[in-house]
């Protein structure tokens, strides 16, 4: 070996996908989170393998990551978690599905869609239930939903939220309060639409520790790559970084 190599073990990925899927009920959809280059390797290689395994959805952080998947001929639906207003054009050209997570993004996206006469564009509504990163707070939801109801540009494919502490069982009271708040807000939103947006909340450690919040889909990232605090052994590492030792001093 003459250089530093990052190995991606696609058999380990397959194993992890199967192990995590086996925790889920058969109707639950699986969203693979491949943001940040598949947690530091190659989102394209990871995603191509997962397509052959029957993954239902991908999630990326930014539109350009979704574009890279589309340019590699990946046709699976792609949720963009943190789309920016500069990427409207790319989002539409490459058939990416943005998260609606702020009034700024929502209002500008509606304007863009209506000025381009685009109707029923698939979007995902993000609720903040306590992580406090992005998403509409409980008291903002009504105003945001009215904007969506009053335009014909947006189709809500799903409603989702993100859990803050599923890996820490000492925080289970807080996690349960997040889950309950999500149930309450999402059922209010669903009652407003004649169609049926699906729900998702759980990340990898949520799948293990809070099976009650499986809903219609789960979003797994870190577990696919083989890391899970609780389960040393059950999942296999996908990434191995190998390098040369320059010198050993004894
Ligand atoms: C990164 C991310 C995930 C994946 O979480 P893991 O703990 O890696 O499984 C899920 N949902 C959102 C919104 C994320 O940003």
Question: How is this structure best described in words?
Answer:
The chain has 250 residues and is of the alpha/beta class. It has nine helices and ten strands. It has helices at 10-21, 35-40, 43-52, 63-71, 88-93, 103-115, 138-149, 172-190, 204-209; strands at 5-8, 29-33, 57-60, 78-80, 97-100, 121-127, 154-161, 198-200, 217-220, 239-242. The strands form two sheets. It has an eight-stranded parallel β-sheet. α6 (103-115) links the parallel β5 (97-100) and β6. α1 (10-21) packs across α3. The longest helix is centred in the last third of the chain and has 19 residues, at 172-190. It is globular, with a radius of gyration of 19 Å. The two termini are 23 Å apart. The relative contact order is 0.17. Bound molecules: pyridoxal-5'-phosphate. Residues 33, 35, 81, 162, 203-204, 219-223 line the site of pyridoxal-5'-phosphate.
């Amino acid at each position: 070996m003459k250089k530093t190599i990052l190995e991606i073990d696609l058999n380990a990925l397959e194993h992890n996908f199967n192990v995590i899927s086996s925790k889920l009920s058969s109707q639950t959809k699986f969203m693979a989170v491949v943001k940040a280059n598949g947690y530091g390797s190659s989102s394209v290689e990871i995603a191509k393998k997962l397509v052959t395994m029957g993954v239902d959805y991908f999630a990326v952080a930014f539109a350009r990551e979704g574009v890279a998947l589309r340019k590699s001929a990946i046709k699976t639906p792609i949720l963009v978690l943190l789309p920016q207003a500069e990427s409207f054009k790319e989002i539409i050209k490459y058939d990416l599905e943005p998260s609606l997570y702020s009034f700024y993004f929502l209002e500008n996206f509606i304007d863009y869609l209506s000025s381009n006469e685009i109707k029923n564009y698939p979007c995902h509504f993000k609720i903040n239930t306590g992580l406090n990163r992005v998403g509409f707070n409980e008291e903002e939801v009504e105003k945001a939903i009215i904007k969506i109801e009053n335009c014909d540009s947006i189709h809500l494919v799903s409603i989702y939220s993100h859990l803050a502490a599923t890996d820490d069982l000492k925080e289970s009271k807080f996690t349960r309060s997040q889950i309950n708040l999500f149930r309450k807000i999402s059922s209010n939103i669903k009652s407003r639409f004649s169609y049926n947006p699906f729900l998702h909340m759980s990340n990898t450690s949520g799948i293990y520790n809070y099976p009650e919040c499986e809903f219609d889909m789960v979003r797994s990232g870190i577990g696919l790559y083989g890391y899970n605090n609780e389960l040393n052994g059950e999942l296999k590492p996908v990434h191995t970084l190998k390098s040369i030792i320059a010198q050993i001093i004894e």
